[in-house]
Design brief:
The protein has about 450 residues and is α/β, with parallel strands linked by helices. α2 links the parallel β1 and β2. α12 packs antiparallel against α19. The relative contact order is 0.18.
Length: about 450
């Protein structure tokens, strides 16, 4: 995810920090936490319960979680959810300590991947949720590509398979292409439905004297690279690489083709002028002011409101070859239950509620992107209709792929730095791919995966 997006703070953890928490795992002094077996969905029978929740959500996301807390408490008057909002960096860096404290949160929003969820699970600080997955039918409800983002083997030799240690929520963060519908209309162009059409439109936009793609290079923006990668790499290869399959290398994930395409676009002058000196926020503001037509971006990052909701649309492009759709996407947070929670059944019921149709509808009502539930009422505005269509397509195609930086704690830096070098002509797509392989393979070797 872009360095300007809060989720990425976890990726900045050093490799040493990742394994410091592993000392809590068996052999490092911690006691192994058994998965709950006798579980119940009878929340009302639990008596008076107070659950502590820690999350990082602000703005519309904060309104979403507060609305769902109120609805859950109304349905179960015996339950009180005591929510604490923390800065993302603070929560990520202290969650391991909070979960070791008996007075810590019962439920928290962690980050997926080894650098957060994996270390919490390996340290026996969060519950194995398999019994609740069976109780509530999560294996049927959640697309496998989303479920994998929350799973580890119980010996913690592999990510992306095995047992549930977290759950998603019923809203999504995707990478796709936003477009300025007004400018396309002025130029007599239709919104593209394929990569070929996107490039045809880009050429026409450039010929008309306008900028095809908004882009910032100062901070090593990877949204365009990862958005393109999902058009070339298969869902299975990208997932397997990120989840540590040593038999899949980065070239198989479409990374080289994505880097080649981005480099070609730069050569053709399709990226924003002087993008090398543009930071993320400046380029985003300029895009909203109409300085360019297309922008690879994370859903929700534009902060659209009012007339902008019909001025901008969103496209989840199908793959360059074939008719399937693959896209970077995840729930904005991996919800965990503390191993020390005295009320795991009630906590699990709340996590299930966060995946419900009501939770998806609440997301839509606040301008957020729904996931997991197709039967929601979408406002008649362009951007939200497009975003909802994208998640519905990815749900149906089971086409979600994780954020590529989850493949190692240092991968975000590798991607960002090599994207800058690529567009400066100081590395090649092949060498870029080799650097990514080297980083992931070094992590696998050090972790013993």
């Amino acid at each position: 995810m872009s360095a300007k997006k809060p989720r990425i703070a976890a990726a900045a953890l050093s490799l040493a920090a990742v394994f410091a928490l592993a000392a809590c795992a068996p052999g490092g002094g911690g006691a192994e936490v058994a998965a709950p077996t006798n579980v119940s969905d009878d929340v009302a029978a639990a008596g008076d319960v107070t659950l502590k929740l820690s999350d990082f959500w602000g703005s519309a996301e904060e309104q979403w979680i507060e609305k769902l807390i109120a609805e859950f408490e109304a349905e179960y008057p015996n339950v009180t959810i005591d929510r604490t909002r923390e800065d993302w960096g603070q929560l990520t860096s202290t969650l391991n300590l909070q979960l070791q404290d008996a007075s810590g949160p019962d439920i928290a929003s962690a980050n997926n991947g080894w650098s957060s969820l994996g270390t919490l699970a390996k340290g026996n600080l969060v519950l194995n949720l398999d019994s609740y997955a069976d109780l509530y039918g999560w294996n049927d409800k959640v697309p496998t590509t989303i479920a994998r983002q929350n799973q580890f083997t119980t010996d913690f030799s592999a990510i992306g398979e095995g047992s549930w240690f977290a759950t998603p929520v019923a809203r999504a963060s995707l990478i796709g292409v936003y477009y300025n519908a007004d400018i396309l209309k002025q130029l007599g162009l239709e919104a593209p439905t394929s990569l070929d059409e996107l490039e045809t439109d880009a050429a026409a936009i450039k010929a008309a004297g306008k900028v095809p793609f908004s882009y910032s290079g100062l901070d090593g923006n990877t949204a365009a690279l990862l958005g393109l990668q999902s058009l070339y790499g298969s869902e299975s290869d990208i997932n397997d690489f990120v989840y540590g399959d040593p038999d899949v290398d980065a070239a198989a994930t479409g990374l080289t083709q994505a880097a080649t395409t981005l480099q070609d676009w730069n050569t053709k002058g399709w990226l924003a002028p002087n993008f090398e000196g543009l930071d993320y926020q400046t380029s985003l503001a300029s895009y909203l002011d109409g300085d360019s037509v297309f922008r690879f971006e994370y859903t929700g990052a534009l902060g659209l409101s009012g007339d902008q909701l019909n001025e901008f649309g969103y496209i989840q492009l199908p793959q360059a070859e074939g008719d399937s759709t693959v896209g970077v996407g995840a729930a904005p947070g991996a919800m965990v239950i503390s191993a020390k929670s005295e009320h795991p059944d009630v906590a699990a019921a709340f996590l299930d509620f966060l995946m419900s149709e009501d939770a998806s509808q609440a997301a839509v009502d606040l301008g957020l992107v729904p996931m997991l539930n197709a039967d929601v009422t979408i406002p008649d505005v362009l951007s939200q209709k497009d975003e909802a269509t994208a998640t519905a397509t990815l749900d149906t195609d089971d086409g979600y792929v994780p954020y590529f930086d989850w493949s190692s704690p240092t991968m975000l830096d590798v991607l960002s730095q090599n994207t800058q070098l690529l567009l400066a002509g100081k590395t090649t797509p092949d060498d870029f791919t080799k650097a990514v392989n080297a980083d992931r393979d070094a992590f696998l070797a050090e972790s013993g995966s």
